[in-house]
Amino acid sequence: MDDVMHLEKFNHDISRDLQVDAAAFQHKCSQDLDFFLVLDLEGKIEILEFPVLMIDAKTMAFVDLFHRFVRPSKMSEQHINKYIEGKYGKFGVDRGNWDLKTKVPDQCKVSQIKLPPYFMEWINLKDVFYNFYKPRKSEATGMMGMMKNRQVPMFGSHHLGIDDTKNITRVLQRMLADGARVQITARRNPDSRNVQYLFEDRI
């Protein structure tokens, strides 16, 4: 985070990008959680980028940031280079429950560590968005569709994890301002690892 080249390439002045208008509090409702951790992992075979933004659920304000690029342990140098071409090039990136339902447990296996208990439940923002705004399903299947539906302009580069995380956070702020109640959408059974989805209508 102190590397000059890193700071030139990746803007970490998050408070500027995620400013909240006082008028936004007009429709806001109370939330069950005190904070939201917004993440958008990048990497399909192994996690390559791990950005997380913390947002205060009451004020919608930016609180803190974690951002790391991760060197994969099981991928060849050639595969890594192909993977990151053009920001993850031809391999693509899946969306939705994939981050916490699939990728984090897979990465824990590769890294030979136990899945931490805080990854046992999560919010798929797309499901909350779909149930709150009732858009066409195609407008809630990804970050770009949600931003377009709410007319939220995009910042930065799509598929760069830190920029996608900031943009998803801006969608979250908009939802909170519009009065959405953002709830847990999925839980993992710690014994069987089966996932229970808590929303009947989901993406």
TrEMBL record:
| Keyword entries, A-Z | Exonuclease, Hydrolase, Nuclease
Protein name, per record: Exonuclease domain-containing protein
The organism named in the record is Citrus sinensis (Sweet orange)
